[in-house]
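pinging the channel bc i need a second pair of eyes. not urgent but kinda urgent?? the chain im working w is below, pasted from the shared doc
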Amino acid sequence: MKAPERYYDFQKDISGCGVFGVIDTKRGLIPGQVPIDGMACMHDRGNGLGGGFAAYGIYPEHAEEYALHLMCDHKQALDKAREIIFAYFDVEHDEPIPTRQTPVITDPPTVWRFFATPRADCPQDCRGLPEEDYVVALVMKINTTVAGAYIFSSGKNMGAFKGVGYPEDIAEFFRVDEYSAYLWTAHNRFPTNTPGWWGGAHPFTLLDWSIVHNGEISSYGINRRWLCENDYLCTMMTDTEVVAYELDLLVRKHGLSRRMASKVFAPPFWDEIERMPKSEQDVYSALRMTYGSGMLNGPFAILVGNSKGLWGLNDRIKLRPLLVAEKGDQVFMSSEESAVRKVSPELDRVWMPKAGEPVIVDLEA
């Protein structure tokens, strides 16, 4: 086969999603400009089809209520979703999520937020459910039954802000610079196998979990079917959604530690297990047999935030970059060191985690 003319001049547009996270372990508040600047430094890792942020500690006046963030394509969807939320929750306050006009965001959905608690006299279909299962059921109900409406954030004292655009554009639209949080996760999207749309942008959230991801979950099909068997319904047309729901299932419902859940996502290879001491062989063999359908295949670097801390994980052969850095009480995780140096030039420690080994940073009590 003849090579293309001037093949040596070919320039492939090599890019990939960018992830960024920062936590203050003593719950000091970090201005929203910090993750904005970190993501802006990785602008070329995305293509303008998705950006977003999740922030923890931003609603102290509503800390005991669930902050439900809703996006709707039209007024009918908003009205129907509001009707369901008011039927299942006591709503302390609801309002449009504050936004500002942004030239490159030309056709945004309506975005609304509700601060609410489950009703004692709830409808029959949710009676007897534990509180968090109740909230999950409500999220699934709206996301699967109300055309054009999606709850994209549902935790306490936290919120996600995401959409189609570069992270800087989404930050401008949602006025992210006006928030301060003790933990941030952020994402710059370069979708490959799935569409770029508002609901499909990262972070993906459920309750207080937020997940941002660089890579491709090639096991999405089996992961999704397994989640469906456990009453989680995937509606966002993006592989990262399964990670959010698996986290909730494994850690909250099944009681696995975050470290053990990491070994479900990125388990040791069988030949590694064979060389382990007998006690470890038994543990990891049981994990692989019990949770084989939850294993994440494919290249990935994920950051997970929740009310306990920040957690980073690579796939088991580290096909996507992930860096961790420390400065005083703050810990950063990012696709690139440059993004961290942009917001914190002098660092105490910088390292690259090993493949499949989680880095878990807890908040101090």
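so The chain has two domains: 15-58+157-253+299-365, 62-156. and The longest strand covers residues 110-118. — does that match what u expected or am i reading it wrong
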